[in-house]
Amino acid sequence: SQTIHQWPATLVQPVGSPLSLECTVEGTSNPNLYWYRQAAGRGLQLLFYSVGIGQISSEVPQNLSASRPQDRQFILSSKKLLLSDSGFYLCAWSGGDYGYTFGSGTRLTVV
Amino acid sequence: AQSVSQHNHHVILSEAASLELGCNYSYGGTVNLFWYVQYPGQHLQLLLKYFSGDPLVKGIKGFEAEFIKSKFSFNLRKPSVQWSDTAEYFCAVELEGNNRLAFGKGNQVVVIP
Lengths: 111, 113
Known about the structure:
The complex is a heterodimer. By secondary structure, chain A is mainly beta. Chain A has no helices and eleven strands. Chain A has a single domain, classed as Immunoglobulins (Immunoglobulin-like). In chain A, strands 2, 4, 5, 6, 9, 10 and 11 form a seven-stranded mixed β-sheet that branches. A four-stranded antiparallel β-sheet of chain A has the order 1-3-8-7, with no helix packed on it. Chain A is globular, with a radius of gyration of 13 Å. By secondary structure, chain B is mainly β. In chain B, about 0% of the residues lie in helices and about 50% in strands. The radius of gyration of chain B is 14 Å and the shape is globular.
């Protein structure tokens, strides 16, 4: 069966520090991968999506970047975090008739 | 601009009451439609989805949704809610072939025992 792993679950980082959030998918190949950010009262905002290794599309300009070094690995990064980067980050994958499946999320607090 | 609209962000109701959450989208073309639920402290789970066929879709936990193409709507319903239905509900739309899911802002539903 397909599973999606996302870590860490919570993270507190100082302003100006780097960020690396990792997401991996098991049980499928060549999935579409996504990073969303969830903010209270604002729903889920799509940040990045990828249809293959090295292929990244950005939906909104921001202080973040994404990379897909392997077929089932999707990484969200920042060189220098801002206070406004605080939020709940969700990784998701889609493929075939499975629709979209979401990870358990990372609560990022920038202090 | 393309968008997904959910109104009445906060809904409070008593057990056994009926629930209906509205969802409207502004995309042209063929769409795939989803409702997701997020229970307190848990991750997003799929309630139901519509790709094609019967516009009345049955989901898990007694939920259903109706796709009305002429109204660009996909409203979620449950005839009789339980305390355990307290959660945040998200409508989402995928433009067919677009490989991206756009979400509404969500409805925070609180069911009072």
